[in-house]
Amino acid sequence: MAASLIAAMTIGGCAPDDDVAAQGDAASQGDVAERDEHHYERITYPTRGESDPTQNWGDLYLPAGTHAEDSVPLVVLIHGGSWASQLGAEVMNSFADDLVDRGMAVYNVEYRRVGSGGGWPVTFSDIADALDHVVRLDEQYPELTTDDELVVGHSAGAQLAMWSGTRHSLDDDEVGSDPAFRPTRVISLAGPLDMIYAATHGDDRIVTVLGGTPAEVPDRYTSVDPIQNIDPRIPVVAVHGTDDTMVSPENSIRYINAVTQQNGIGSLVLADGEDHVSLVSADSAHYQRILDIISETSDKTIDELEQQHSG
Question: Residues 26, 293: contact at Cβ < 8 Å?
Fold first, then answer.
């Protein structure tokens, strides 16, 4: 099922402040957080091996207002950049700013990439560790909901986001297995969701991050390739620009077709005229609609998303 995004005016988000109001009085009234302003905090997350504090971190955004326990939905953002070190989490800052303005908590993750200590398997174990740290964030900020959450990724981050949703199916000896936290719904923005197709059609970036071609390291592709690890119980949305020449829209088309064949909950959204980079620009005519897709996918129940897909 393909649909074109409608054009919309963009609204820039305001940077959240660091100040947090005292919470004692609020807690005594059944609330656990009270803030006059958005809260922003850079946190470091532990890794299973030696970590790099300059890269193993995430920016946490919490909305202003009075909040009860388990009342603020969390969305995790994973940036792209070909799994390489040229781009970082700042790519997703506009989304984080505008989503916290909508009352959501946001965890914008950084991780080690090719050229900065990443690649196989470090990039993948970093993402697993960053997401598993959500359990600790929930202990520190009990207003967060963490049992029915959304992960959104762009480009390489979309592949990592889709993989994060199916880590529970990994064998014990696979990278990222036995998750402490995993999303129940995932959104891909221009993701290489069929990694073998992409790698055999000229995408050398996948070969670089996995350390070989599908023929050379087939087990790695089997472990992390989204199209090979579909969980039909997890609602997924694949958004792709029709003019994307870096990651072909065919990736998203093939992926959602495979989800549909497995009777899963999947939606394909083709953004007319957008390329790989413009799709996630705050200046894009489609930016506000993508924010709406994120909000709606987070807010609806699994049953509502399934009904929406069926309709």
Answer: no
